[in-house]
Design brief:
The chain has 3 helices and 4 strands, in the order ββααββα. With 96 residues, the protein is of the alpha+beta class. It has one domain. This is PspA-associated domain-containing protein.
Length: 96
């Protein structure tokens, strides 16, 4: 699975990381609904850290279609909310 962390490039992450990413995705949706910017930043940071820890950075200069895009930890709540609304709010950041 290819995951893009906004501002930090693409990472190849094993498919078995998807379960934990889905849990964090649900927490992102909840933090946005609760308008809890502190929780949102913490969860996005944890998502990015998980991707970096479990993944391997994709070769620079090679762009591949990302299966998942993780906003940077400092992304404002209103931007994440808009992103969720533009995609599928029921799915969160991760489709499915």
């Amino acid at each position: 699975m290819i995951v893009r962390i906004m501002g930090d490039g693409q990472w190849e992450v094993p498919d078995d990381a998807l379960a934990r990413l889905n849990v964090l995705d649900d927490l992102v949706t909840q933090a946005v609904e609760d308008r809890d910017e502190e929780a949102l930043a913490s969860i996005l940071s944890e998502m990015g850290d998980l991707v970096r820890r479990l993944g391997t950075r994709a070769a620079s200069g090679v762009l591949r279609l990302s299966d998942l895009i993780v906003p940077a930890a400092d992304t404002p709540l209103h931007e994440v909310r808009e992103w969720l609304q533009e995609s599928r709010v029921d799915d969160g950041l991760i489709p499915g």
